[in-house]
Amino acid sequence: MAHHRCTVNFLVLFLTITAQFTISVSQIETYIVHMDPEALPKPFSSPQSYYSSLLMSISDVANSEASEPIYTYTNAIHGFSVRLSPSELGRIKRARGYLFSIKDSQLQLLTTHSSDFLGLNSMSGAWPASDFGRDVIIGVVDSGIWPESKSFDDEGMNDIPRRWKGGCFGGANFSTSFCNRKLIGVRFFNKGVKAANPKSSVKFMNSARDILGHGTHVSSTAAGNFVHGVSYFGYASGTARGMAPRSRLAIYKVVSGKHEGLYYSDVVAAIDSAISDGVDILSLSIASSGALYEDPVSIATFSATSKGVLVSQGAGNSGPSLNTIRSGAPWVLVAGASTTDREFTGAIILGDGVFITGSSFYTLNSIPAHLPIIYTHACGGQKQHKAIGKIVLCHVDRDQLEDSALVLAEGFEGTGVAAAVIILNQSDLPDDEIGFPAIFVRSANGNVILDYINSTQEPTATLMFLETGHGRKPAPKLAPYSSRGPSQSYPLILKPDVIAPGDSILASWQEETPVSPIITGNIISSFNVESGTSMAAPHVAGVAALLKGAHPDWSPAAIRSAMMTTADVLDNLLNPIQEWGYNQAATPLGIGAGHINPNKALDPGLIYDADRDDYVNFLCALNLTDRHMRAITRSPYSCSNPSIHLNYPSFIAFFSGNGTKTVEFQRTLTNVGSKKSSYLVNLENVQGFKVSVVPEKLVFRHKHQKQGYTLKIEGPRLKQGTVLHGFITWVEIGGHHVVRSPIVVASLMQDTTR
């Protein structure tokens, strides 16, 4: 907004134009009014005195509420809140220093925010059914923990379960007194990394203390206790809590630092100890690779699963290309990453008063008001010399952001070129944290800004940051970096299994590593926002703990099945879940069975169960050598009943080459719902293929009864790179259970490009 000349008659003007009429109560609403303190008239000794005088001058006779502010703000924002009629609001918009106003609205205090997005609440569903995951033990194999974090307080926790066999091992800067009824076990493993770096001058932290922050973030996401009043420099404010706030945590540190590396030997030792200690759930934000019999982590997790431990692992961050999931062990629950409906925003107030919002995740709010704004087309282009001290509107591809927009914005604080950047032509607006003042806008809003620049002799704008919104639509979306299937280790099992919140997740952090690389320096916080499938895996682990708490007798396969067959495949607009950045529906190669829904998973009706013998029979059908079989099974095994038909809640078939082909799958469903129930099959066919199921009706006469069926896919061979999909759904007759599984038909994925 352009500056106006201050005149002696400033307040008289408002008194002159005051309306004298009656207003109905329904017309008066509360507004939060943002003001620019630098633009206030000089005669006033303080912003507060100006606000009071201003409100007295613009208030209608019939509205006494407008004469005094409800609150005045000096720290969170500059401005005030007040009850205004429409005419009063119109007059206040013309006042000196006015920036913009927002109508006050009802809101709820949220976790930052993924548990709420998943529907978890204290009144019904998975939280009360499991008593918030009470006494389930989650092991986290990662970079350790920052034990001072309030997320690991044991308030509300009862005594440690007697079945726990682990210990609390102290060390450098880590006293055993940090362990409590929440943080019940702590170990660190660095012998492997030390052996691999015998000449290293690095002093290894010989304790479980987290010097990276990653492990602390993951642990609190899975099972952090309730922490009220947290935020990330004003973003994502609310109550932080993990998926299973009353579950126990056992920490296994395997990452010693940023540059020392992560070694299989340390990871396997950690998993070995976790099994011995008695964890129920294991969260791995680690991407292993190799064939099932060559990957030490796959082998170690086979043992964990055989002992009844559910293992959750991140899919990896190599998307959006296909065939980028490196680890896809059939006994591990592999999680891809999704967005949520929360967004971090910034505001652009043009000099003509037009208000535009965009995506921004800049952690300061110190840009001067009413800066000149110019258009340079390409960020970092030939007009840099014209951008000094100005706001620059420009185009940039997301993968060019660091190289081009940063060049412009290095001038913040006067060391380079532009003061701030507005970046347009984004189909999806990123929530990534950036180290310079920038706001991302879509093309339509970018065109509004450009029209204003072109039609105004001296265009100006004011940028505001540190805003958080909820209810973004559509959501969720498949995150672009989330690795896609088929799995490189074993493509005949569809991976990932599910997707879960992984983008812009707020959780605890260690307080020595900077969290925000802003141009003016690094800043520290006890909470941090991170993105990746590393964040999705602990969400799944925490939800698994809730299901284990509610159903202690369920196997890892039963818990996985419940999550998969009840997963959501539609977003909050009731359309198929989309890929971020692409105007197209995601396929099961990206989202697996869909987005986890904890409350639905609590009562799935039917499950696809599997035990150690089922996995052994499956491995036998792969014609592995005896050496490989013994390495994986770690005990005498029998291949008297080999079967390629692992009882899995998803289907994938490859149709490559010439001619036609038929593929059959055999599955068995176990009734965990009503004592007596019947289900009819519903098929969403794969385009160009014939999909059939025998029988089409399943009748269960008692709980835990098993019924089998055969699914057959017939059709032509496909061109390389083709991916088609459908669903098989078992619908309970006269009941509420819907048991859905994805079906993927594809060619062999030799070319991994999109």
From TrEMBL:
Residues 1-27 form the signal peptide. SUPFAM superfamilies: Subtilisin-like (SSF52743). The keyword Signal applies. Transmembrane segments: none annotated. Residues 30-109 form the Inhibitor I9 domain. Keywords: Hydrolase, Protease, Serine protease, Signal. One of its GO terms (molecular function) is serine-type endopeptidase activity. Residues 646-745 form the Subtilisin-like protease fibronectin type-III domain. Residues 133-581 form the Peptidase S8/S53 domain. CDD domains: PA_subtilisin_like, Peptidases_S8_3. Pfam families: fn3_6, Inhibitor_I9, Peptidase_S8. The active site is at D142 (charge relay system), H214 (charge relay system), S534 (charge relay system). Belongs to the peptidase S8 family. PANTHER family: PROPROTEIN CONVERTASE SUBTILISIN/KEXIN (PTHR10795). This is Subtilisin-like protease SBT3. It comes from Sesamum angustifolium.
